[in-house]
Specification:
Layout (H helix, E strand, L loop, with lengths): L1 H20 L26 E7 L2 E16 L4 E10 L2 E10 L4 E4 L5 E8 L2 E18 L5 E12 L6 E12 L5
Parallel strand pairs: 2-9
Antiparallel strand pairs: 1-2, 1-9, 2-3, 3-4, 4-6, 5-7, 6-7, 7-8, 8-9
């Protein structure tokens, strides 16, 4: 039951982020305010720089972009999402942690990380919710950065239950709180 709540929260945030990130207006783009359209802009990276090891990943360094973070008032939790590609696969990396403050949190039933990988062979989910930590080094106001690191083990959600180790740092722009 708790796994379903965890995944539903991730999917809800993903829908919100994809809806908002389609904006071409400079002032309405929470991922790259002031950047507008395809002009790039400056500022911080909005990236997750991760190392993945296990399953189809062999100490694979990957940089995912478009980092967006939001705080859910009703869930008293923050969710962060990054999107990118590795070879021909599409990756989405989610981080969920309790509250909106700096510090280190152990992953648990409702908090942790999830990686989705869409490849020619289908969609794979890797869930990290028991053997890892998320450290928040900076929790900025709306429009500012949420920065930190993750380290732990994710489990492929299949009968094989293959382990994938993830370590890395992230920086994402915080959007307005949601209910």
């Amino acid at each position: 039951m708790k796994n379903k709540k965890f995944v539903l929260f991730f999917l809800s945030l993903l829908s919100l982020v994809l809806f908002i990130s389609c904006s071409k207006s400079d002032s309405n783009n929470p991922v790259n305010p002031g950047g507008g359209g395809n002009s790039g802009g400056g500022g911080s990276s909005n990236e997750a720089k991760l190392t993945l090891n296990g399953d189809t990943f062999n100490n694979q360094a990957v940089t995912l972009k478009n980092g967006t973070a939001g705080y859910s008032i009703s869930d008293t939790a923050t969710a962060v999402i990054f999107i990118g590609t590795l070879n021909s696969d599409t990756l989405q990396f989610f981080i969920v942690f309790k509250g909106k403050q700096n510090g280190t949190q152990n992953w648990g039933d409702d908090f942790g990380v999830m990686l989705t990988k869409k490849s020619s062979s289908g969609l794979s989910y890797y869930l990290g919710q028991s053997q890892g930590t998320t450290t928040i080094s900076s929790y900025g106001a709306v429009g500012s950065k949420i920065e930190g690191s993750v380290s732990g083990k994710m489990i492929l959600q299949s009968p094989a239950a293959t382990e994938v180790t993830v370590t890395g740092n992230f920086s994402a722009t915080r959007i307005a709180d949601v209910d």
